[in-house]
């Protein structure tokens, strides 16, 4: 796993400029991730029963809230129309299809979607892929779903969280569920350049409109050939727990479950070490700081 070499720097930028830079950066990352051991594309192709580790973890949290579906079901999403926002190269989207879903993957990066289409074809999975920034996904997709899914490493790339939540609500059918899991914003506030300590170093609260954090180190969070990342500059935005939950509530969704977790699929801080399910903080920090969190929400049923 690579570690960042450049600090986050606050800057003034338009959202359109930031998204264009992120699109180019993620096109490059997709080329790296397509052959990365972390994404295990060839393993998914070779084994039609294989499910990504991200979706295995997600389903353990989500399945109890899917209308009585058993946690140990082989197909907890059977018969459901699922929209996967910020799907990247499609490994998690394909995994949800293998759990019974009819899937639509949405991402702003055409390079990522090209890898996703190829993966689905090689896995003989029927999937729809839509290129769109997440806040415009409802009109781009043009339909509604039983379940909307977004996990993991997603909302830091979204400036307008209220628009994000409204998109989710618009994509859901009445009674439909939404699942979210991501890095905990408290962890994101830690200094990820300090190698032997856990220390505050980044902003926790939202940025004013027109501001973003930026860095340009030409790296990503997996193994691979980084020379394929031609556009190194990217932009991101911090979103505290309260902002995320309030955005979902303001969009009309009902919270079903909120949880905090001690493992994350990538090494967000240099001191994190491999655990049974991803990377964890060593003691005593593991007892002091959550590294991930998750939300299950539901759109109210009509009548």
UniProtKB/TrEMBL annotation:
Domain Methyltransferase type: 85-178
A Pfam family: Methyltransf_12
Methyltransferase is among the record's keywords: yes
Any Gene Ontology biological process: methylation
Top-level taxonomic group: Bacteria
SUPFAM superfamilies the record matches: S-adenosyl-L-methionine-dependent methyltransferases
Xref: InterPro entries: Methyltransf_12, SAM-dependent_MTases_sf
Sorted UniProt keywords: Methyltransferase, Transferase
Gene Ontology molecular function: any one: methyltransferase activity
Protein name in UniProt: Methyltransferase domain-containing protein
Organism: Ruania alba
